[in-house]
Design a protein that fits this description.
about 850 residues, 31 helices
Length: about 850
């Protein structure tokens, strides 16, 4: 039956006598509750607030720093409007704000002192201190120059209870941080009231010209960030309903519960609610899952990832906990009507405190993922796939089909549950992704061949073949994708450790569970190979198209201003010397290949790596700081079977070797060419920035080491990464041949570019010595390296022309030589690199 917002299914475990009715027998005794004491948790809401506050703070600081004159003039206009108010009204506003600023903190501290609540104070005081310190730093450093010059004059002669400049932005930030820090211990009305009071104080202070607008916005953002950061570090009380409220809701719904036990934390699933086992007075057992707003907040990350990456995320709209509980219950009812074995639904009911519960019949089942290998038989897996086939035939998408969401009864029969994201009339991509997800996650336990055979027995060849286009990572967004990635990493690590000597790697040869499954499915179902479904919202082509358009509009078009001069100079150029510059592009990529070969202990194939360098150079043409090329090389190394830590160490060594070789080659050319011929002195960064970076890194590491999640992160992520990187460096150091190849690539790359520049200068009759050209080129390259543009475009040309003309070359000839050199070494890489990028993707090298 349906009563208002309650969905109640009549079963043998539900008492049909309304509690408290006339003539009804005495109610059952209070249920026995077995639940651990609630501990502080890290809430997703605090993380979202931190991210939003940091985004608002970043936008405010950028507005104040980047558009300083505009920010100053805009705030000056607002101050002028504030000064037009009557003096008495302004003083009254300031006095009102100051009174609230004095009374609110005092009242809060007195209230908590009388109630002896120490937990809120442990969050409020650090949050207020952190907010005040951060706001003081921002207002005195980043925001000071964006304030109008007339602001101190506006404050002169005005006062409320105290000086008109109080409360300052620093005090306002401390109050905002304190409100956020105290939020978990306050009710919804109190939280809204305090936030409204804080925002009103900021608005009134701005209206009375006591605070400039940007300072007020930054103070509120700093307060939100500081309070959220303290709650994330120290934890906050959970906003989930207490066990007593759950028991009361069950009794109020007509279920006479005698015992209610919360499952241990190891058996709980993050973001999926809190699971209880209940027993009724008649001996029936229920599984009760309690949902709260926190579950919706945690699921928001999953939905955001799907909406960002997928073309058709097919996510349901945001629902309240009660709406989510009702949806899951109705999906269970529909799934049972299809003939699939699913949890037997009982009821959905609201719980005091804003939560809701879903009750199903409990039969002493275990989760499929927790079964030992001996009990994970083919019959169990085939039974699971038979239920999946019924859902597929009726177009019911589960959308979270993993072994963690399959229950196995003591007799070996299986049941599906966790239909919170289920979808009726699901599109093909949802149905195919369901099969692909369950197939991949079961293959992790039993292997691709056995998993495919069991799926074939339950689904049949036609349904099984529908999973082929969806055996790709994007179809497995969520825990399944991470499980498959860890499985492939473990296989790659085992292959590396099992090799007694250094391996000869194969491009794209990294173990891939999804690739193996696709081959097994094609063989088992007799279906032909199917292209991967187009699931991504953004592709390489779309991203590169946008970057290319930006490049043309902002960087390439100004280069055409010198096109007539270059064409005139080409008529008098020596074409044989111009053609001699052409091989420089191909030789440069050969040295880049040698550099990469020398930074990996294992043996990489030369030709695929050489081709990947062209694709990498193409990405470097459209991304600043060679970021695109480094990411592409990292992905290529990972796809060959190298661990992430080792691959990252290799890319880092390449960057370090390139920087050192450039510095060495530059020093040699500067020394040999002579100081009087240098012409250009590069402005190198000071070591102070490096010291600041080291200090911040050490501080962050110390902060991580002080918290339990930080220590877990260091132990599970950072230390294995550093260990793999150290093993890579040690392996290279023990191979003199590798060192020789790497040094040859690192030194040969800048030298061949200098040779190309010298050939171009000679083609236009520059008359400069090779050492002079080398000094000018390396100086211009060091300067262009600091420019935030791809490949130093514009900066390198300007530096080269300035250096060559300083050394005595004619301005027209220098300009033509530089433009022709860049045409044959920079722009020629674009079509070749674009073709290489498409080819290495088709070959599955990346």
């Amino acid at each position: 039956m349906i009563e208002g917002r309650r969905i109640h299914l009549a079963t043998d475990v539900v008492s049909h006598s309304a509690p408290g009715a006339a003539g009804a027998p005495q109610g059952p005794p209070d249920p026995v509750i077995d639940a651990p004491q609630q501990q502080p948790v890290r809430r997703a809401a605090d993380l979202w607030r931190l991210l939003l506050s940091l985004a608002a703070l970043t936008a405010t600081v950028l507005l104040a720093v980047v558009t300083r004159d505009f920010a100053r003039s805009a705030q000056e206009g607002l101050l002028s409007a504030a000064t037009a108010l009557p003096p008495g009204l302004r003083d009254g506003l300031v006095g009102l704000v100051q009174g609230c600023a004095l009374l609110a903190p005092t009242s809060a501290l007195a209230l908590w002192g009388t109630r002896r609540r120490i937990d809120p104070v442990q969050r409020v005081v650090p949050a207020a201190l952190l907010g005040a310190l951060t706001a003081w730093s921002l207002t005195h450093l980043a925001l000071a120059r964006s304030r109008p010059d007339l602001w101190p004059e506006v404050l002169a002669g005005r006062a409320g209870l105290v000086h008109a400049g109080w409360p300052s932005a620093v005090y306002l930030a401390a109050c905002a941080a304190a409100v956020v820090g105290a939020g978990p211990w306050l009710g919804p009305r109190a939280r809204r009231a305090l936030w409204s009071l804080t925002a009103a104080c900021a608005v009134l202070s701005v209206a009375a010209a006591a605070i400039v607008p940007l300072d007020a916005v930054a103070a509120l953002a700093v307060g939100g960030a500081a309070g959220s950061a303290v709650l994330l570090l120290g934890g906050a009380p959970t906003d989930r309903p207490a066990a007593q409220a759950v028991a009361d809701a069950l009794v109020a719904s007509g279920i006479p519960v005698s015992t209610l036990r919360e499952l241990p934390s190891d058996d709980q699933r993050p973001g999926a609610g809190t699971v209880y086992h209940a027993e009724t007075a008649s001996g029936s057992r229920l599984a009760v899952r309690v949902l709260a707003a926190e579950d919706h907040n945690r699921d928001l990350f999953h939905r955001l990832a799907r909406r960002t990456l997928l073309r058709h995320p097919a996510d349901a709209t945001a629902r309240s906990p009660l709406g989510a509980a009702e949806h899951e219950l109705l999906m269970l009812v529909f799934a049972a009507r299809t003939g699939a074995r699913v949890d037997e639904p009982v009821m959905a009911y609201p719980v005091a405190g804003g939560g809701a519960l879903v009750a199903t019949v409990e039969k002493g089942s275990r989760v499929l993922s927790s079964l030992p290998d001996l009990e994970l038989t083919d019959d169990v897996l085939e039974g699971v796939w038979t239920s999946v086939a019924r859902l597929q035939e009726h177009r019911l998408g589960h959308r979270a089909l993993r072994p963690e969401h399959v229950l196995v009864e003591p007799g070996g029969e299986s049941r599906l549950f966790a239909f919170a994201r289920a979808q009726l009339d699901a599109p093909p991509e949802v149905l195919g992704s369901d099969i692909a997800e369950l197939l991949a996650t079961t293959a992790i336990r039993v292997g691709p061949q056995r998993a495919t055979v069991c799926a074939l027995a339950g689904l049949g060849p036609d349904l099984l073949a529908t999973a082929l286009p969806y055996l790709q990572p994007l179809a497995l967004i969520g825990p399944a994708r991470h499980d498959v990635a860890r499985y492939d990493q473990a296989r790659a690590r085992a292959a590396r450790e099992g090799a007694r000597r250094r391996r000869t790697l194969r491009a794209g040869g990294r173990p891939s569970l999804l690739r193996d499954l696709a081959a097994e499915v094609e063989t088992a179902s007799g279906a032909p190979a199917a292209a991967s479904a187009h699931l991504a919202r953004f592709t390489w082509k779309s991203v590169l198209g946008l970057l290319g358009a930006f490049l043309v509009l902002h960087l390439v078009l100004p280069q055409f201003a010198n096109a007539p001069a270059a064409l005139d100079a080409l008529r008098d150029a020596n074409w044989w010397w111009v053609l001699a510059v052409l091989p420089v592009t191909f030789v440069s990529q050969a040295f880049s290949t040698c550099l990469q070969l020398g930074t990996i202990p294992d043996r990489l194939p030369f030709l695929p790596t050489y081709w990947v360098q062209f694709a990498s150079s193409f990405l470097n043409r459209i991304t600043p700081g060679n970021v695109g090329g480094m990411a592409f090389n990292l992905r290529y190394l990972q796809k060959t079977g190298i661990e992430t830590g080792a691959a990252t160490a290799s890319v880092g060594l390449q960057s370090l070797a390139g920087a050192v070789s450039n510095a060495v080659v530059a020093a040699v050319f500067f020394a040999l060419a002579g100081q009087h011929q240098g012409g250009v002195r590069p402005d190198l960064p000071s070591g102070q920035k490096v010291l600041w970076a080291i200090a911040l890194t050490l501080a962050a590491g110390s902060l991580l080491a002080l918290t339990r999640p930080g220590r877990r992160f260091l132990g599970e992520k950072v230390w294995p990464f550093l260990r793999a990187a150290g093993s890579t460096i040690a392996g290279i150091a023990s191979q003199p041949a590798k060192l020789a190849v790497g040094v040859t690539g690192a030194l040969g790359l800048p030298l061949v570019q200098v040779v190309g520049m010298a050939l171009s200068v000679h083609a236009f009759g520059g008359g400069l010595a090779f050492l002079q050209v080398g000094a000018a080129y390396m100086a211009a390259r060091l300067i262009a390296g600091a420019a935030p543009v791809p490949g130093g475009l514009g900066a390198l040309e300007a530096g080269l022309i300035a250096g060559l003309t300083t050394l005595g070359m004619a301005a027209g000839a220098a300009t033509s030589a530089v433009l022709v050199y860049r045409l044959l070494t920079f722009w020629l890489n674009v079509p070749i690199g674009a073709a290489a990028l498409g080819d290495v993707q088709r070959r599955n090298y990346v």
